[in-house]
């Protein structure tokens, strides 16, 4: 068959998304982000699950309509099995199962983190696709990993966080500074206006390729408490410099580990994925590494950085080619390993 049509469904956290791919080409990618969580300062699992329930049907219908194809033309349904919030995953999983059953087409389970990595294989003008093997650093609100990718299906985690994810470091720092949730984008925006060397935060000492971010968060908290005791307006007066300094420290931590990974593996092809790969600091640092260290870097198109179903559909496409299908008894798995 020349053209394979895959419907992807993503519901692991607080974005309900559906996408249609024809082979590696994207026909539609609809994302409905849940605004409700901002007022709680974080994702509320019960509310997320309920919002997915009301969003999933219209989001899938819209994705099919935008793609201009009828559901009868679909060759398979790919859905996120995990990792993520159980109540959220269940909505996408149940929906995908019933649709696959109703249409009598294969069901394909997808690991969300593999989606962030294989998003680089969605065909886009001006975006090169990595060749194997390459290193992928997944950086999001829930994950921080370095993965050695040997093929579309063969992946090995060679380093990961031992406590907080890097996105959490951004969001928790933002909370300390009184910023809204999620704070990553605002810290990034302010960082561009501030002096990255204004304040010094200690980087964690973690051996090998593992990461740690909880000490940094505590360091920032104590620093802000100490300075605010001296000058009550410290944060207001120095917000951009504080943000720039935090960003400088976090990007430094990520780049240090990538350098170790490149040295250890001898692989100089480096890709990033996940919400934090939208960050201007890490994007710039990677671009520089092309010149200074001879790396080839792959930075995702902005719309594929945060959670989306196109990345689930592309994993589905490669699994379809291998006829790697799931039974209708497949279960959502909150703590799914790569
Ligand atoms: O991948 P994602 O959408 O959801 C998870 O799977 O977690 O990532 C969301 C995370 C949040 O922590 C958010 O603050 C962070 O990505 N983020 C950023 C930026 N844009 C989103 N962090 C730093 N700079 C950004 N520009
Ligand atoms: Zn994600």
Automatic annotation (TrEMBL):
PROSITE patterns documented for this protein: GLYCOPROTEASE
NCBIfam families with a match to the protein in the record: gcp_kae1, T6A_TsaD_YgjD
Enzyme class: transferase
GO molecular function: tRNA N(6)-L-threonylcarbamoyladenine synthase activity
EC number, UniProt record: 2.3.1.234
Protein residues bound to substrate: 138-142, 171, 184, 188, 279
Binding site for Fe cation: 112, 116, 307
Required co-factors: Fe(2+)
Protein name, as recorded: tRNA N6-adenosine threonylcarbamoyltransferase
Keyword Cytoplasm on entry: yes
Catalyzed reactions: L-threonylcarbamoyladenylate + adenosine(37) in tRNA = N(6)-L-threonylcarbamoyladenosine(37) in tRNA + AMP + H(+)
Cofactor binding note from Swiss-Prot or TrEMBL: Binds 1 Fe(2+) ion per subunit.
Family (UniProt): Belongs to the KAE1 / TsaD family.
